[in-house]
Specification:
The complex is a heterodimer.
Chain A lengths: L1 H14 L5 H39 L9 E3 L16 H4 L15 E3 L4 E3 L13 H12 L12 E3 L12 H9 L11 E4 L20 E4 L13 E2 L6 H4 L12 E5 L6 H14 L3 E3 L15 E4 L2 E4 L7 E7 L8 H7 L3 E5 L18 E2 L8 H6 L3 H19 L2 H16 L7 H5 L2 H6 L17 E7 L3 H11 L5 E8 L19 E5 L19 E6 L7 H13 L5 E2 L2 E7 L4 E5 L8 E2 L3 E5 H9 L5 H8 L3 H13 L4 E2 L21 H18 L9 E5 L20
Parallel strand pairs in A: 1-3, 2-4, 5-6, 6-7, 8-9, 8-12, 12-13, 13-14, 15-16, 15-18, 16-17, 19-24
Antiparallel strand pairs in A: 10-11, 18-23, 19-23, 20-21, 20-22
Helix pairs in contact in A: 4-11, 8-10, 18-19
Chain B lengths: L1 H40 L18 H5 L8 H11 L7 H4 L13 E3 L10 H12 L3 E2 L7 E3 L6 E2 L10 H6 L10 E5 L1 E2 L17 E4 L13 E2 L28 E8 L7 H6 L9 E6 L6 H4 L4 H10 L2 H7 E7 L7 H8 L3 E5 L18 E2 L8 H6 L3 H19 L2 H16 L7 H5 L22 H4 L7 E7 L9 H10 L4 E8 L18 E5 L18 E6 L6 H13 L5 E2 L2 E7 L4 E5 L8 E2 L3 E5 L1 H8 L3 H10 L3 H13 L4 E2 L23 H18 L9 E5 L20
Parallel strand pairs in B: 1-2, 1-3, 3-5, 4-6, 5-7, 7-8, 9-10, 9-11, 11-12, 12-13, 14-15, 14-17, 15-16, 18-23
Antiparallel strand pairs in B: 17-22, 18-22, 19-20, 19-21
The chains are: A alpha/beta, B alpha/beta.
Chain lengths: 720, 737
C-alpha cells in the first residue's frame, strides 16, 4: 500500500511539466476554487458548534438572575386543588417509569425560570432559596437524574415552594400549570416544608397543584394521602451551621428539656406545673429577652436570666420536647435528633417525617397533647437501656435522613422508588438499623424455624482424587445409612479416569460420578444440580471410621439445626495474646468453634453461598493453597447465621494430618501454622471474627445411660 | 488524452468535496455527541455563581418560633371532634380513650346475640375468639371496645346471610353512641354490579375491620384491613404452612400460576380478562374459566371454550404446591381467597389488585413477603418475577410462612391481631414497634406491657447483634417447711450460689408454714430473697420484679445438682436463649387407639418436654405464662398442683416451634406409675400421672394444636465420657456416677 502510493506520487509531478501553460492556469484556478470550497465547508461545519459548546460551558457558571424571565398572563389556567383521593394507581402514570433492570426511577428537573406576573412582580418573594438549590443539585448529581425529558418518570419543577409564606399562591399555581410537561400534575413532585399560613395554617401546601405528588413538611392525617404523598422533615439550617459531635448514649444532666420558644400559653402552664413537681429533672428554656445586640438570638436560650447555647444544650438532656406550634412540623425536631436527644413529640394527627419507612417508635416517644401533664410518668417508665438505644437511633435518623437537603431529597426519591419497584424495595433493616447494628447483627437467610422431614434424606458428596480403594470402603460404609438418598463422587483427578462402572461397589441408592475440570478444593462445595436434597454430607474419601449409627444420628441432629454445620471432629480458634493474633487449635479441647468438613452435614444453600457469595478472595486463596476450605466454610456459615456449629458424637480417631499428634506420631507443625494463617487471613477479609465458641456437643438422648443398648435408637456410637 | 485527464481530475475533486462533506457531517455528529457527554459531566443543575448569596428558605425566627398564639389547643381539639367524623374518623376524634382508662385497661364486650337471628359460621367463630381472648369482659361498663352481636360479615344484599334492618337494631343499643369504640367486622360489602364498600347501614364512628378495603376509603390509623377467610377457616390452632424445607435452588416446577374465574363483564373483569395473555403452558400457567354463575353461556365470548378446556388440564392443588409465585388478582372485590391460600402454600403472592389496603397493613411490611404488582403492568409480571434472585425467593417464601403462622392461620389469630392493633393505638406509648410485628415469633406473643425494649426479649439477640447476659437468677420453689439444716434445699442453695454466673437466689415460699427467719438460711455469696408464693403452683412462674437477669434457673427444693452441671447448662442456654434448657426429659405421643395425646416419663429415645424442676429459660416466659395464657389453664395448674411444667413447655414450644434442649445430667429423675407404696412422694402416684396426661390434652385443645416438638439429642460437654485424661475435662464432675 505504502509502495503503491509512493509510486503514484512519483508519477504525478512528471505529469504537470508536460502540460501547456493555458492548461496549467486552468488547473490552478480549479484547485484554488476547490481549496476555497473546502475551507468554506470546513468553516461552515465547525463554526456553529464551537459557539454552541461554549454556551454549554458557560452555562455552568451563571447567576440565578440570568435565568430566563417568563411572564404569566392573568388568564393563564390555574390547576385544580390537590385531589385527596389520589393514589399511585389512580393519579400516577406508571408507564413512564417502565420496567428497568436497575429498578431505578428517572427524575427530570426543569431548567430554572423566573416567573413574573403581567406587571413584572415575581411570584415568590425569595425566588430560588439556598435550600431548594441544594436539593436540586443533589438530585441532579444522583443516579436518579436524567436530562432526557422523554425518559423521565418523575418531574421536579424548579419553582421553589418550600415556604408557602413567600409565595403568591395563585401565580405559583399558574406557573406550575405552564410547565411544558405538567399534564395535570401527573408524575410531578413538589417539595414543601412550611405549608399553610395565618390564621388557620393548613397542613398541606395551599397552592393548587392538580395531581402532583407532595413531599410536605407538616402533614396531618387528614391531608396526607397515604402511599402517595411523602412526609418530610422541616429542615433546620442550624444543621449546617453547628457541628455537634455524636455523644455516647447514656444518662444526661437533665431528664426533660423544652427548648422551643413561643409555646402556647396553655402548654407553657402545663410544662411549668410539671417543672414544679419534678424540679431539676426538667429544664424549660425560652427566648432571651435581654441579649446584647449582635448576638444571634436563634442560638441562645434562657431560663431565669441564665443563658444557654442552642442547640448545644440539647445534648445535655435525655428527652427533648417537640410540641406543635401553629404548624405541625417543627424544625426543632431536626435539632433535637442531631443532639442525640430523644424527641417527645406532642402534635396530634401529625404524620412523622418519612413515617412510611422509618420506625419512629424506636427513636421517639409520641404522646397525645392531652397527656402532656403525664409526660414525666410516661417517660420514666421507659427502661434505661431503651432510652440509650433511642438516643443512638435518633442521631442515626438525623445522620441518614435529616442532616442536609440532599439527604431529605434523596430519601424522598428512594421512598417513591420503593413504591414503583416494590419488589426491589429497601428492607426495614436497611432503613432503620444504624450502621453499628447492621455490622454486628445477622439476618440468617434460613431464618424460619423448620425441622425438615426425614424422608428425602441426604446426599453424600465424596471428594476423591485417586484413593480408589479407600473411596470404595467409604461408599460401602455410607450406603448402610438408612437416610442416604444419593451418592455423589466428585472426581477431582484430571489425569486419571474413574474406575469402570462395574468395579464400583453395589449400592442401593443412585451413585453418580462428577468429573471436575480442575483439581480445586472448592469443587466439593459446588451446588451441583445432582444434589436434590436439602441436606448434604460432605465426606472425605478416607473417613471410614464413622458407623452407620453415627452418620444417621448426625443427619437427625442436622434436621434439628438445618441452618448450622453439623460435623464430627471439632476444632477451636484461640486468641494468642503473645503474638496478638488468632491461633488454630486441634488438641482435644473443652470447646468447639468449627467442625471439619471432612465429615459434616450442612444445608445445600451454603454450597450456593460458598461458590457465589464468598467474600473477598477467600475462594481463590483456598484453591491456591489447597487448604482451609473447611475453615472458610465455617467462617461463612457462622458469619451469616451468627451461630456456632454442632459437633456430634464423642471423640474418634480420625485420619487427618493434625490428629497424628495424639496418635503419638510426629506433629505436623507446618500444617498447624498454615491453618492458623488461614484463620487470620479470613478474619481480616470478613473484618471480624464470626466464629462462635461453645462447650457442648450433641449426643443421642440415652447416650451412655444405664439402659439396654438394644432399645437405644443409636447404640453404635462412640465405639473406637 | 487531455480531456480524459481533465475529467479524472474533476472527478477526483468532486470526490474530495463529497468526502469532505461526509467527513464533516460525521464530525458534526461526533461533535454534538461529545458536547452532550460533556454536558452530562458538567452538572445539569448549574452551580450558580451566586449560590452563596441565595436566601434561606425561611428565617431562623420563623422556624424556631412556632407561632404559639392563635387558637388554644384544647379548643382546637374539641373543634376537631365535630369536624372530623364519619369518613374522616381518626382515633383522636372518633374514639373515646376515657373508656380504656379502667383498672384492667383494654376490655372488649360482645353484645348478646339478637333473638331469632341467625349468625353465620364465620361470625360465630369471630365472636368465640373475642369471648375466649384475655380481653373479654361480660360487663359493658368496663369495656373499652364493643363488638356487635349482629352478623355484619356479609353485606351483599343478594346473599342469604344478609341481615335486614341493621340500622334499626343498632339504634336499639343503648351504648351505640354513634358507633364510638365499636368494631364492625365485615368480609363482603356491596353487590352486583359495582360491589361498593357501602355496608348498607350507617357505621358512624365505628372502627371497620373489613376485608377488601380500598386505600381511598380506608381511614388510616383507624380502620383495620383484615384478610378474606372462608367459613372453613379453623377457629384456633390452624394448619401449619406448607413449607417443609428450603430447597436450593428454590425455584419450583412452575414459575407463576393462576387458576380461577374470568369475569366477562362488570367490575374486576379488566384484570381477569387479561390474565390469559401471560399463559405459556410451560412455566407460567394462567388459567381462567368462564364457567361460573347461572347464565355464563349467555355472556360467553370467543375465548371461553378454549380457555375452559385448558382450565381442566391443570389441578389447582398441584399448581399451588409446585409454583414459585402465585398470581393473586382482584376478584369482584379487591381481596380474594387466593391471598391466604398462596400465603399458606408458601407460593409467593404476586398481587394484582390496585388500591387494596393489604391485611393488617398498619403493622405488616408486606413488601418483604409478597410481590406487589400493578394491574396496569400485567405483561411485565413475568419478567419481574423471573428477575427475582435466589436469596430473595428464599426470604420471601419463608416470610409468607412466618406471617401465615403468626397472624392468619386461624380465626383466633385474625381476631386477636385486629384487637392488638387497636390496643397498640390506644396505648401508643406501650406498644409494639414494627420490628416486633415483623420478626419471629410475631407480634401476638410479644406483650409490650412487659417491655418495649427489644433487648429484653429472648428472640432478638441475633438481629440486634448482642448476646444474652452473663448472669442468672435462681428461683427455688419451696413447699416443705424448714426443719433441719440437712434438708435438700440447703444443699441446693450451696450448690447454686457457688456458680459464678449466679447473681441472686429467690426462694418462693409455698409452704403451709410461714417462711423461716432470715438467720435460718445459710450465709451465701449472693443476695437471697424470700417471697410468698401464696401456695399457688402457678406462682413459680410469676414475673417477680426482683428477677433482674435475663436467665432464670427454675428449681424444685429437692433438686439434686452440681455446680458444674448448673454452669454447663447456663452456657448452653446462652446459645439457645429462646428455649428451655433443662435436665430430666419427658415425652408426649399420639395414642391412635384412644385418640388422645399420651404422656410418658419412660426413658425414650426422644423427648418433647424438659421438667422445670431444674431448667434455664428467659424471664420473659414468666411474663407470658402469667399474662398470655388464659386464667382457666393457670387455675387448673393451681387446683391440681401439677402440670405447671408441661404448660410451660407448651407455651415455649408454641412460641419457638422448636423442642426444648436437654443437657447432660449426672443423676436421673424417675416418674413412673409404679406400685403403690405408703411412703410415695406425691408426684409418684398414679393419680398424679393421670392428671398429667389429662393436662396434655387440655392444653392441646386450648392451643388448638400440639405445639410440642420432639428432639432426639442431648447436649453434653465436648469431652463427655471420652477416653481422655480427666484432668483435661472442664466438666469432669458430670461423669462421676
Amino acid at each position: 500500500m505504502m509502495c503503491a502510493s509512493v509510486k503514484y506520487s512519483s508519477r504525478g509531478p512528471a505529469l504537470i511539466p508536460r502540460m501547456k501553460t493555458k492548461h496549467r492556469i486552468y488547473y490552478i484556478t480549479l484547485f484554488s476554487v476547490v481549496l476555497l470550497g473546502l475551507i468554506a465547508t470546513g468553516m461552515f461545519q465547525f463554526w456553529p458548534h464551537s459557539i454552541e459548546s461554549s454556551t454549554e460551558w458557560t452555562l455552568d457558571r451563571r447567576s440565578v438572575h440570568d435565568a430566563p424571565l417568563v411572564k404569566l398572563p392573568v388568564s393563564s389556567p390555574i390547576p385544580e386543588r390537590g385531589d385527596l383521593s389520589c393514589r399511585m394507581h389512580t393519579c400516577f402514570d406508571v408507564y413512564r417509569c417502565g420496567y428497568n433492570p436497575k429498578n431505578r426511577i428517572k427524575v427530570y428537573i426543569y431548567p430554572l425560570q423566573r416567573f413574573v406576573d403581567e406587571v413584572g412582580v415575581p411570584i415568590s418573594s425569595t425566588g430560588l432559596s439556598r435550600e431548594y438549590n441544594d436539593l436540586l443539585s443533589a438530585i441532579s448529581d444522583s443516579d436518579f437524574y436524567t436530562d432526557d425529558v422523554t425518559r423521565a418518570c418523575l418531574f421536579v419543577p424548579s419553582i421553589d415552594v418550600l415556604n408557602q409564606n413567600s409565595l403568591r399562591i395563585r401565580e405559583t399555581a399558574q406557573a406550575l400549570a405552564m410547565l411544558p410537561r405538567w399534564d395535570k400534575g401527573m408524575n410531578h413532585l413538589l417539595f414543601n416544608m412550611l405549608p399553610g399560613g395565618p390564621p388557620d395554617y393548613n397542613t398541606a401546601l395551599d397552592v393548587p397543584r392538580d395531581r402532583a405528588l407532595l413531599a410536605g413538611g407538616g402533614f396531618s392525617t387528614w391531608t396526607y394521602r397515604q402511599g402517595y404523598d411523602v412526609s418530610i422533615p422541616v429542615y433546620s439550617p442550624l444543621s449546617a451551621e453547628v457541628d455537634l459531635p455524636e455523644k455516647q448514649p447514656g444518662p444526661r444532666r437533665f431528664f426533660i428539656l423544652s427548648s422551643q420558644t413561643a409555646i402556647h400559653r396553655e402548654y407553657r402552664i402545663q410544662l411549668e406545673r410539671l417543672k414544679e413537681e419534678n424540679g431539676e429533672a426538667l429544664l424549660l428554656l425560652d427566648k432571651c429577652s435581654n441579649l446584647s445586640q449582635g448576638v444571634a438570638s436563634a442560638r441562645k436560650r434562657c431560663y431565669k436570666g441564665q443563658v444557654y447555647d442552642y442547640p448545644q444544650i440539647l445534648q445535655e438532656s435525655s428527652f427533648c420536647v417537640v410540641l406543635r406550634g401553629a404548624r405541625l412540623g417543627q424544625a426543632t425536631l431536626s435539632d433535637v435528633l442531631q443532639a442525640g436527644c430523644v424527641p417527645v413529640i406532642m402534635a396530634d394527627s401529625y404524620i412523622l417525617p418519612f413515617s412510611e419507612v422509618l420506625d419512629w417508635k424506636r427513636a421517639s416517644v409520641v404522646i397525645p397533647e392531652e397527656k402532656l401533664p403525664e409526660m414525666y410518668t410516661i417517660l420514666k417508665s421507659i427502661p434505661h437501656r431503651q432510652v440509650e438505644e433511642m438516643q443512638r437511633q435518633a442521631r442515626w435518623f438525623w445522620d441518614a435522613y435529616f442532616r442536609s437537603m440532599k439527604a431529605i431529597g434523596l430519601t424522598t426519591l428512594q421512598i417513591i422508588n420503593d413504591r414503583i419497584y416494590p419488589y426491589a424495595a429497601r428492607t426495614y433493616e436497611q432503613w432503620n438499623n444504624p450502621p453499628v447494628v447492621k455490622w454486628s447483627s445477622v439476618n440468617s437467610p434460613l431464618f424460619l424455624p423448620l425441622i425438615p422431614p426425614r424422608s428425602p434424606g441426604f446426599t453424600a458428596v465424596v471428594l476423591t482424587y485417586d484413593r480408589v480403594e479407600s473411596l470404595f470402603r467409604v461408599i460401602t460404609e455410607i450406603s448402610k445409612v438408612p437416610s442416604l438418598a444419593k451418592l455423589l463422587v466428585v472426581w477431582n483427578n484430571q489425569n486419571k479416569s474413574p474406575p469402570e462402572e462395574s468395579l464400583w461397589p453395589k449400592v442401593a441408592v443412585p451413585l453418580k460420578v462428577v468429573r471436575t475440570k480442575e483439581n480445586k478444593l472448592s469443587n466439593r462445595f459446588f451446588p451441583f444440580d445432582e444434589i436434590e436434597t436439602e441436606a448434604v454430607l460432605a465426606i472425605d474419601d478416607d473417613i471410614i471410621m464413622l458407623t452407620s449409627d453415627e452418620l444417621q444420628f448426625g443427619y437427625e441432629v442436622w434436621r434439628e439445626f438445618p441452618d448450622r454445620l453439623v460435623g464430627y471432629p471439632g476444632r477451636l480458634h484461640l486468641w494468642d495474646h503473645e503474638m496478638g493474633k488468632w491461633k488454630y487449635e486441634s488438641e482435644w479441647t473443652n470447646e468447639v468453634s468449627m467442625v471439619l468438613t471432612g465429615a459434616a452435614f450442612y444445608h445445600k444453600y451454603f454450597n450456593h453461598l460458598y461458590t457465589y457469595k464468598m467474600p473477598g478472595d477467600i475462594k481463590n486463596w483456598v484453591d491456591a493453597h489447597m487448604n482451609c476450605e473447611d475453615i472458610a466454610m465455617n467462617f461463612l456459615v457462622a458469619n451469616i447465621t451468627g451461630k456456632a456449629p454442632i459437633k456430634v458424637t464423642p471423640r474418634k480417631k480420625f485420619k487427618c494430618p493434625e490428629c497424628t499428634a495424639i496418635d503419638g506420631l510426629s506433629l505436623d507443625q507446618t500444617h498447624m501454622v498454615e491453618r492458623s494463617e488461614c484463620i487470620n487471613k479470613f478474619a481480616s477479609v470478613f473484618g471480624t471474627m464470626p466464629l462462635k465458641v461453645v462447650e457442648h456437643r450433641a449426643d443421642p438422648v440415652l447416650y451412655k445411660d444405664d439402659f439396654p443398648e438394644k432399645l437405644k435408637s443409636f447404640p453404635n456410637i462412640g465405639s473406637l | 488524452m487531455q480531456a480524459r485527464k481533465k475529467y479524472v481530475l474533476l472527478g477526483l475533486c468532486t470526490c474530495c468535496w463529497l468526502l469532505l462533506f461526509y467527513w464533516g457531517g460525521l464530525q458534526e455528529r461526533l461533535l454534538s455527541f461529545l458536547t452532550r457527554r460533556q454536558g452530562e459531566v458538567v452538572r445539569p443543575w448549574p452551580d450558580w455563581l451566586d449560590r452563596a448569596l441565595l436566601p434561606g428558605y425561611a428565617e431562623n425566627a420563623e422556624l424556631q418560633d412556632g407561632g404559639g398564639g392563635g387558637e388554644p389547643p384544647r379548643q382546637r381539639r374539641q373543634a376537631w371532634a365535630s369536624i372530623y367524623k364519619d369518613s374522616r374518623c381518626r382515633m383522636d376524634t372518633c374514639f373515646d380513650f376515657g373508656r380504656c382508662r379502667a383498672r384492667d385497661g383494654f376490655r372488649v364486650y360482645v353484645y348478646p346475640p339478637e333473638k331469632n337471628e341467625r349468625v353465620s359460621e364465620s361470625y360465630r367463630k369471630i365472636l368465640a375468639s373475642v369471648a375466649e381472648s384475655r380481653y373479654y369482659t361480660s360487663d359493658p361498663r368496663e369495656a373499652c371496645l364493643f363488638v356487635l352481636g349482629i352478623d355484619t360479615l356479609d353485606r351483599d344484599q343478594l346473599s342469604t346471610q344478609f341481615v335486614q334492618n341493621v340500622d334499626e337494631k343498632i339504634r336499639g343499643y343503648p351504648l351505640w353512641n354513634d358507633g364510638r369504640n365499636h368494631v364492625i367486622f365485615n368480609l363482603y360489602s356491596g353487590t352486583w354490579p359495582n360491589y361498593t364498600e357501602d355496608l348498607g347501614f350507617n357505621v358512624g364512628q365505628a372502627i371497620l375491620a373489613k376485608a377488601s378495603l380500598n386505600t381511598e376509603h380506608f381511614r388510616p390509623g383507624f380502620d383495620v384491613s383484615i384478610p378474606l377467610f372462608s367459613k372453613d377457616h379453623p377457629q384456633k390452632g390452624g394448619e401449619r404452612g406448607w413449607l417443609l424445607r428450603n430447597t436450593v435452588p428454590p425455584r419450583r416446577k412452575y414459575l407463576l400460576m393462576f387458576k380461577g374465574k374470568r369475569y366477562l363483564t362488570g367490575i374486576g373483569s379488566d384484570t381477569r380478562n387479561a390474565l390469559h395473555h401471560i399463559h405459556n403452558g410451560k412455566d407460567i400457567v394462567s388459567l381462567t374459566t368462564c364457567k361460573h354463575g347461572k347464565d355464563w353461556e349467555k355472556h360467553k365470548d370467543a375465548r371461553c371454550d378454549h380457555d375452559n378446556q385448558e382450565y381442566e388440564r391443570f389441578d389447582y392443588q398441584e399448581l399451588l404446591h409446585n409454583s414459585t409465585f402465585c398470581l393473586v388478582p382482584r376478584g369482584r372485590r379487591l381481596g380474594s381467597f387466593r391471598f391466604l391460600e398462596s400465603l399458606q402454600a408458601a407460593c409467593i403472592p404476586v398481587l394484582l389488585s390496585n388500591g387494596w389496603e393489604l391485611p393488617f397493613s398498619d403493622v405488616i411490611q408486606w413488601n418483604q413477603a409478597v410481590i406487589e404488582g400493578d394491574e396496569r403492568l400485567l405483561l411485565q409480571v413475568p419478567s419481574t418475577v423471573r428477575a427475582v434472585g435466589v436469596d430473595r425467593v428464599l426470604a420471601l417464601r419463608q416470610r409468607t410462612q412466618m406471617l401465615w403462622e403468626a397472624y392468619f392461620s386461624s380465626v383466633d389469630k385474625i381476631v386477636l391481631t385486629t384487637l392488638e392493633i387497636i390496643k397498640d393505638r390506644v396505648y401508643a406509648h406501650i406498644s409494639r414497634n414494627k420490628f416486633m410485628w415483623n420478626s419471629l415469633p410475631g407480634g401476638l406473643v410479644v406483650l409490650p406491657e412487659y417491655s418495649t425494649h427489644l433487648a429484653h426479649y429472648p428472640f432478638y439477640y441475633l438481629s440486634l447483634g448482642i448476646s444474652p447476659g452473663q448472669e442468672f437468677t435462681a428461683v427455688i420453689h419451696a413447699t416443705s417447711p424448714l426443719v433441719s439444716q440437712s434438708q435438700p434445699i440447703m444443699k441446693l442453695l450451696q450448690v447454686v450460689s457457688k456458680s459464678k454466673y449466679c447473681s441472686q437466689i429467690i426462694i418462693l415460699w409455698n409452704s403451709e408454714k410461714p417462711p423461716p427467719h432470715r438467720s435460718k438460711w445459710p450465709p451465701m455469696p449472693v443476695p437471697l430473697v424470700v417471697t410468698d408464693g401464696r401456695r399457688k403452683t402457678s406462682s413459680r412462674f410469676l414475673p417477680h420484679v426482683s428477677i433482674d437477669t435475663e436467665a432464670v434457673l427454675s428449681l424444685d427444693e429437692d433438686t439434686v445438682l452440681l455446680t458444674s452441671e448448673v454452669n454447663f447448662a447456663f452456657h448452653v442456654w446462652q446459645s439457645f436463649p429462646e428455649r428451655i434448657v433443662g435436665y430430666p426429659p419427658r415425652s408426649h405421643f399420639w395414642d391412635p387407639v384412644k385418640k388422645i395425646w399420651g404422656y410418658t416419663s419412660k426413658w425414650t429415645n426422644e423427648f418433647s418436654i424438659v421438667l422445670t424442676g431444674a431448667a434455664f429459660y428467659h424471664r420473659y416466659y414468666h411474663y407470658l405464662f402469667s399474662h398470655y395464657l388464659p386464667p382457666s389453664l393457670r387455675a387448673l395448674v393451681d387446683r391440681t398442683s401439677n402440670c405447671e411444667d408441661i404448660l410451660m413447655n407448651f407455651l415455649v414450644s408454641s412460641v419457638t416451634h422448636l423442642p426444648p434442649i436437654k443437657v447432660a445430667q449426672r443423676k436421673q429423675y424417675k416418674e413412673m406409675p409404679g406400685p403403690q407404696s405408703t411412703n410415695m412422694a406425691p408426684w409418684a402416684t398414679p393419680e398424679h400421672f393421670n392428671q398429667r396426661q389429662d393436662c396434655v390434652n387440655t392444653f392441646a385443645s386450648w392451643f388448638g394444636y400440639m405445639p410440642l416438638v420432639h428432639s432426639q439429642l442431648r447436649l453434653d460437654p465436648v469431652l463427655f465420657k471420652d477416653h481422655v485424661s480427666v484432668l483435661r475435662k472442664k466438666y469432669k464432675d458430670l461423669e462421676r456416677a
